[in-house]
């Protein structure tokens, strides 16, 4: 229930998957008939690895179809970080998942929920 991804500077990190993601990935992999070792490939021969620009283009199309503005890959990363924090995951663990060496970088990613801040204040004060 995890995979490796390569980020900026060829930095390798683990990405943890939920059961729904695993289910859809298995379904996708069963439909593929190529031998490319990349997880995501183009739908036409020669089934090359999908490049970041291709992912951005697909997400933009999905955003338009869903009538959602400003859909781009990094938005998912920021949203996931915010959701993890808002559900109580310690920030140092979120930083590790994101591959950040400094907590300041992680803090720039998240949008704190005022209700959670207020609740936690009263819980710990």
SSE layout:
Elements: E1 2-6, E2 12-16, H1 19-31, H2 52-65, H3 73-86, H4 91-98, H5 103-109, H6 114-124
Antiparallel strand pairs: 1-2
Helix pairs in contact: 3-4, 4-5
Question: What would you note in describing this structure?
Answer:
The chain contains six helices and two strands. It is mostly helical and about 120 residues long. The protein has a domain at about 70-125. It has a two-stranded antiparallel sheet. Helix 3 packs antiparallel against helix 4 and helix 4 (about 90-100) crosses helix 5 (about 105-110). The longest helix is centred in the middle third of the chain and has 14 residues, at about 50-65. The N and C termini lie far apart (about 35 Å). The model has no long low-confidence stretch (mean pLDDT about 90).
Average pLDDT, all residues: 89
What level of helicity do the residues show?
40-55%
Strand content: 5-15%
- Radius of gyration, CA atoms, in whole angstroms: 18 Å
The residue ranges in which pLDDT falls below 50 over 5 or more consecutive positions are none
- The first-to-last residue Cα distance is 37 Å
Number of helices: 6
Strand order of the largest sheet: 1-2
H/E element sequence: EEHHHHHH
Question: What structural class should be given to the helix and strand makeup?
Answer: mainly alpha
The multimeric state of the shown protein is single chain
| Inertia-based shape | elongated
Number of strands: 2
The major pleated sheet works out as: 2 strands, antiparallel
């Amino acid at each position: 229930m995890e995979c490796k991804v390569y980020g900026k500077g060829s930095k390798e990190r683990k990405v943890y998957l939920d059961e729904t993601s695993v289910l859809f990935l298995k379904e996708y992999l069963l439909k593929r008939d190529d031998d490319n070792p990349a997880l995501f490939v183009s739908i036409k021969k020669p089934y090359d690895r999908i490049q970041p620009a291709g992912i951005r283009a697909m997400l933009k199309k999905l955003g338009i179809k869903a009538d959602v503005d400003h859909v781009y890959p990094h938005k998912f990363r920021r949203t996931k970080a915010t959701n993890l924090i808002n559900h109580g995951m310690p920030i140092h663990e979120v930083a590790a998942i994101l591959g950040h060496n400094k907590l300041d970088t992680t803090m720039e990613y998240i949008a704190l929920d005022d209700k959670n801040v207020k609740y936690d204040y009263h819980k710990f004060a």
